Amino acid sequence: MLLVKHYAWGPVSDMMEKRRQKIIDDLDSAASDRKKAETLANEREAALKDSRQEATKILSDAKENAQKTSSEIVANANTDAASIRKKAEEDAKKAKTEALDAARDQVADISVAIAEKIIAKNLSAEDQKDLVNQFIKGLND
C-alpha cells in the first residue's frame, strides 16, 4: 500500500492537481475573455450609435443647405425677373417715344407738303414753320 501510495498515488494526485489548476485557469480565462467580448460589443454598439447620430446630423445639414440654396436661387430668380421686367418696360417706353417722335416728324412733313400744294407756294418758309409748330402743338395737346 505504501508503495502504491508513493509510486502511483503521488503522481496521480499531482496530475489531478495540475488538471484542476488548468481547469480553474481555463475558467478564469474564459470569464476574462467573456468580459472582454462584452466590453468590445458595448464599444461597437456605442460606435454604431454614434455613427447613426452622425449620419442623421449629416442628412439634416444636407437638407438645411439644400433649403438655403433653394431659397437663394428663388430670390435671385425673382430679382432677375424684376430687373428684366423693368428693363422691358423702359425699352417699351423708349420705343413708344421714338415711334411718336417719328410719327410727329412724318406728320409735320406731310402737313407741310399738303399745305404747300393747297396754298400753292403763297406762304413763306417762316409761315410754314409756324403752321407746322402750331400743328405739332395741337398733336401734343
From TrEMBL:
Residues 34-106 form a coiled coil. The keyword Protease does not apply. It comes from the Bacteria. It holds the Pfam family ATP-synt_B. It is found in: Cell membrane; Endomembrane system. It is a single-pass membrane protein. InterPro entries: ATP_synth_b/b'su_bac/chlpt, ATP_synth_F0_bsu_bac, ATP_synthase_B_chain. Keywords: ATP synthesis, Cell membrane, CF(0), Coiled coil, Hydrogen ion transport, Ion transport, Membrane, Transmembrane, Transmembrane helix, Transport. CDD domains: ATP-synt_Fo_b. F(1)F(0) ATP synthase produces ATP from ADP in the presence of a proton or sodium gradient. F-type ATPases consist of two structural domains, F(1) containing the extramembraneous catalytic core and F(0) containing the membrane proton channel, linked together by a central stalk and a peripheral stalk. During catalysis, ATP synthesis in the catalytic domain of F(1) is coupled via a rotary mechanism of the central stalk subunits to proton translocation. Component of the F(0) channel, it forms part of the peripheral stalk, linking F(1) to F(0). Belongs to the ATPase B chain family. F-type ATPases have 2 components, F(1) - the catalytic core - and F(0) - the membrane proton channel. F(1) has five subunits: alpha(3), beta(3), gamma(1), delta(1), epsilon(1). F(0) has three main subunits: a(1), b(2) and c(10-14). The alpha and beta chains form an alternating ring which encloses part of the gamma chain. F(1) is attached to F(0) by a central stalk formed by the gamma and epsilon chains, while a peripheral stalk is formed by the delta and b chains. This is ATP synthase subunit b.
